Amino acid sequence: MKNFYKKSFTLLCIVFLINHINTFAKNDNQNKLQSAISTPTKFIQQDFDVLSYYPKIHFVDIPNKKINAENTITFVWLMRTDTSKFYFHLRGLSIDSVFYNNKLVPYNKVGDTTSATYHFEITPPKLDLADTVQVRIVYHGSMTNEGGVQAWGGVHYQDTTLFALGVGFLNNYVCTTEHWMPCYDHPSDKALFQADFYAPEGYTVISNGIGSLVSKNNGISLWRYSLNEPVATYLLTFVIGNFEKLTFTGANIPIIVYANSQDTTASNYAFKKTPEMLNYFTEIYGNYPFESLGYVLTKLGSMESQTMINFFKPLVFATYSQKDSMNLTAAHEMSHQWLGNSVTPLDFRDTWLNESFATYSESLWKEHVLGFQSYLLEQENKMTKYFKNIVPLEGIIPLYDYPRTSATSNYPTTIYYKGALVLGMLRFKLGDSVFFSTLKSYLNTYQYQNSSTELLKSFFEEHSSQNLTQFFDQWVYKAGWPKIDITLNVDELPNNKTILHSVLIEQNNPSDWGLFLDLPISITIKQSDGNIIDTVVAMNGNALTIPFNDIPIDTVLINKGNKVKTLMQLQSYKINNLLSVQSNVPKPIHFNLYERNLSISLPEMNDEIQMRIYDYLGRVSFSENFYDKQEIFVNLQKLNQGFYTITLINKGILIYTNKIILQ
Ligand SMILES: [Zn+2]
Questions:
Q1: How far apart are CA 56 and CA 659, in angstroms?
Q2: For 493, phi and psi rounded to 5 degrees?
Q3: How far is the CA of 163 from the centre of ligand 1 (A)?
Q4: Which of 185, 355, 471, 526 is most enclosed, with most CB atoms within 10 A?
């Protein structure tokens, strides 16, 4: 393991350097001048690149979260100037000493704990010119969490279990691994991770990667974990408690679930489909990027910690009691292993990349197990929740770089639900084959690295040969959604028959949202004879009329078709009955039907008259056009006996209607 560990170091170093040079070089000068630490919502290139973390943590009082610990951070100087500094974050714990390549060095605190970038800095000793550096920080104290009304990120002791979650909802610094381990706590700098946990005998210690109980000494057990692929610090976790280990087989690697003994029955049910899930995601997203995968049940969650998901315990029971073995949350968190963990946002403006894809993965998992109709239904459920519950709470915010203060947060639900709908529309726009192959290729290209919205966009543009600027502008960068008004232009005939002339679609958005272009509008028409027309039209303006060939219909449904679910709000749905609307038109002078010879005298000369005669089922039985006529004569010999409706249309306007009975 140690050899591999070292080898990975070298490899990573190269990968990271290439990554930095290619992707970020253009920002280098600008950022250099600022010479500052990255903020949660702004990546700033640093002079250093962390290669690995190796914390050694002694849990001296578990209920009180007390530790004595040290962390060795290995990093490389990408460039070193007189002003170069190494930064690390740590909250709520006391630093005893800091060593730079084994030499005791001073450190400075920068900012206070109210600051989003509260951190410590070390100036490298002038005489130590080594490129690769080990900084060892010795620290102790009682671990804390983000606090506040809805404390989530950080360390908790609940239900006799001590555990850590790597992000917070309502703090201004997002990453919360700094509540238990000094680290450069920003998603842009991914590193390897190995950890030694010393805990009283009898406890199980669970963390990221592959680990085991290594030794026991004087009632203290040493558990060692290591992750052989880079990890963003916010994806680190540890859990200490009394757990049973359940193993689920059927995929390339076994899936481990850690549950308290009283939770094993429910867990066996709730996680039984996870091997199939892993096989499915491997099929669509490419090979699983890590060596292990597990879930650990905790009182708070769920969090996609790399290879060891903190799973919200109450959900296991909900899943079990409702006999819902789909376990969408297990699918959501599993998909994050590719989308978020293997490919990680450069900073938290791009959090939607993680959450929209993971939420969309829930729908895809449903599609895999239950079919495309279930997928569409799941997408519709998400849209309904978005409009009904989320918008009233969070307001109208974009997917990218959204506001974070209450009532939104670092993880507003908008980016989950709206995001899933947007990805469904991207899939529809590109087609299944291009969408899925591009996504797989993207995940492979950026494996273990960072990405951003712009990188994703340009990758998809390159692989689909489509310009996606408008798509990303209207759906990702801007807030809002299309508000649609529908008008059906029909004739309502006797016996409740309805003839559809056309469907008018109008987009009436608030002016600052602009018009949504290339908007897929799904129209489903149930005809009187039972046939169904299921079509999608692309809307590119504020109004669009779709003509239909005067078909008898039962119903017309919008956005309920079998191809795509569009994020849109149906504001109004009107039926415009042309017959009744025009009932006050002047009556003709004369109407005569004699032995099937019909004559109609109109009040004035008409340049074009379109005559249509419908049978009692609403089918067009007779149709003829007349030009420059005041008198119309037709012979209806060929029509069967029965009840008919006559209509005369001039320039699209109904000018006359009457009902006749042919003997
Ligand atoms: Zn998620």
A1: 91
A2: -100, 175
A3: 18
A4: 185
Residue 605 has pLDDT above 80, yes or no: no
Give the domain range for residue 124. Answer: 2-242
Q: What is the pLDDT of residue 598?
A: 86
Q: Residue 315 domain-assigned?
A: no
Query: Per-residue pLDDT for 446 more than 90?
Result: yes
For residue 355, report the distance from its CA to the centre of ligand 1, in Å: 5
CA of residue 351 to ligand 1 center, whole Å = 9
Confidence of residue 46 (pLDDT cuts 50, 70, 90): very high
Q: What pLDDT was estimated at residue 35?
A: 55
- Higher pLDDT: 216 or 610? It is 216
Query: For residue 254, how far is its CA from the centre of ligand 1 (angstroms)?
Result: 22
| SS3 at position 234 | helix
Q: How many domains does the chain have?
A: 4
In this structure, are 565 and 527 located in the same domain? yes
Whether residues 234 and 122 fall in one domain: yes
Ligand 1: centre distance to CA 634 (Å): 69
Q: How far is the CA of 337 from the centre of ligand 1 (A)?
A: 10
Residue 16 maps to a domain:
yes
Cα of 321 vs centre of ligand 1, distance in Å, is 23
User: What's the pLDDT tens digit per position in 498-525?
Assistant: 899 999 999 999 999 999 999 999 999 9
For residue 305, the CA-to-ligand 1 centroid distance in Å is: 10
The two structure tokens encoding residue 210: 């592959």
Q: Tell the residue number behind the tokens 């016996």, with chain if given.
A: 495
Contact yes or no for 313/301 (Cβ under 8 A) = yes
> Residue 292 Cα, ligand 1 centroid: separation in angstroms?
19
Instruction: Give the integer Cα–Cα distance in Å for 489 and 510.
Output: 26
What's the 302 CA to ligand 1 centre distance in angstroms? 8
Q: Residues with Cβ < 8 Å from 110, sequence gap 6 or more?
A: 37, 87, 117, 118, 119, 120, 121
| 153 and 177 fall within a common domain | yes
**Boundary-marking domain end, from 446, 477, 508:** 477
Buried b (16+ CB within 10 A) or exposed e, 45-66: bbbbbbbbbbbbbbbbebeebe
**Same domain for 50 and 64:** yes
Pairing mode of beta strands 293-298, 308-312: parallel
CATH number, domain with residue 60: 2.60.40.1730
Using the CB atoms, write b or e for 635-661: b if 16+ within 10 Å. Answer: ebeeeeeeebbbbbbbeeebbbbeebe
What pLDDT does 616 receive? 77
Residues 303-322, mean pLDDT to the nearest whole number: 96
| 165 and 31, same domain (yes or no) | yes
Residue that finishes a domain, picked among 242, 275, 302 = 242
Handedness of CA 377, 420, 229, 142 (dihedral sign): negative
Distance 339 CA to ligand 1 centre (A): 9
Query: From start to end of 236-326, where are the E strands?
Result: 238-241, 244-248, 255-259, 293-298, 308-312
Please indicate, yes or no, whether residues 494 and 419 belong to a single structural domain of this protein: no
Using the mean position of ligand 1's atoms as its centre, give its distance from the Cα of residue 336 in Å. Answer: 7
Q: Which ipTM value was assigned to this complex?
A: 0.99
How many A from CA of 324 to the centre of ligand 1? Answer: 20
Residues in contact with 301: Cβ distance below 8 Å, sequence separation at least 6, in sequence order: 165, 309, 310, 311, 312, 313, 315
What is the pLDDT at residue 640? 87
From the CA of 500, how far away is ligand 1's center (Å)? 45
CA distance 349 to 327: 28
Question: Do residues 466 and 523 both lie within one domain?
Answer: no
